[in-house]
Write a structure and sequence with these properties.
Length: about 350
Amino acid sequence: MENQADCGDGGLQWYAQVGCLEQIEAESEERMKAIMSTFEIHRATKRRAKLRLGMSGPAGSGKTYSSLLIAGGLGGRVGMIDTEHGSGDLYADLLPEGYDVLTLAPPYTPARYIEAIHALEQAGVSTIIVDSLTHAWSGEGGSLDRQGKIADKSGNSWQAWRQVTPEHNALVEALLQSPCHIIATMRAKTEYVQEKDDRTGKTVVRKIGLAPIMRDGIEYEFTTFFELDVQHMAYVGKDRTRVFDGTIFKPEIATGKQLVNWLDSGEDERRPATMTEAKKAELKQSIRSAGTLDELFNAFAIAYRVATALSDSAALAELTKVKDDRKAVLEAEQEAEDGVHA
């Protein structure tokens, strides 16, 4: 930049340029202060965590059996959400301490899955097995079913997804924010391949499992993801723990013990402040103002995320009570309306 003596206007242009630069620097500094006050930066620290394990496999791969063994290794009380027509009771003698079963019947809406998760949380279980998560996507009343019915009525497929996607996301949030360990099983698309048996030289047909039957990308939501084959062997599709990276093994109780050792090998989780009374009142009002069950679902999903992010179980219990009361009112109103139309 030219110095003041080189300017023929007595330095006015030079002073203007300097003043402009100083203003820009001042504004940039203020902007950076605002940014720094918005975000928290801390040194990376491994903290104790809860398991988020996903498992997929074709029929007969042992998803239910394997999930129970792993849950047994994690320790504590185990609860299972069973959508597989009573398969959750088939292994009642598998764990010495036993386990609880919550049978979930159609419709398999994300909202009902979330309510089932909350019910087991409030029952005091340590590990929740969701067997299986696939029904929330492709089962009766699941996301695909709801999207199709909404699209048929509105004639707009994209608009239908705008209603269904938030429901699916709320279920994922409930799984990720739960104070319990979560093991979610998923059915896998099945394909048959022909291979040559090296021992006999004959061609044999083998069943293999492909991608899980769930919304694309669901694997990325979990800390660890196992893919099971019909020989009950687990292939590690993803493993942030690095305990099983690159291995092929048969899941057992020791698998759960390995996982819990890694989960507990860190500092205690930081506990944020409890929910303020003002925020609690705001969330309660939002729940009470819901005019439909869908609106109630969305209002409570927000309240649930806020309460679980704060690890405020007392606030969650209060908000759940308000939600249950409002749900009873809305269901009664719907029954009365259906009776009039009948």
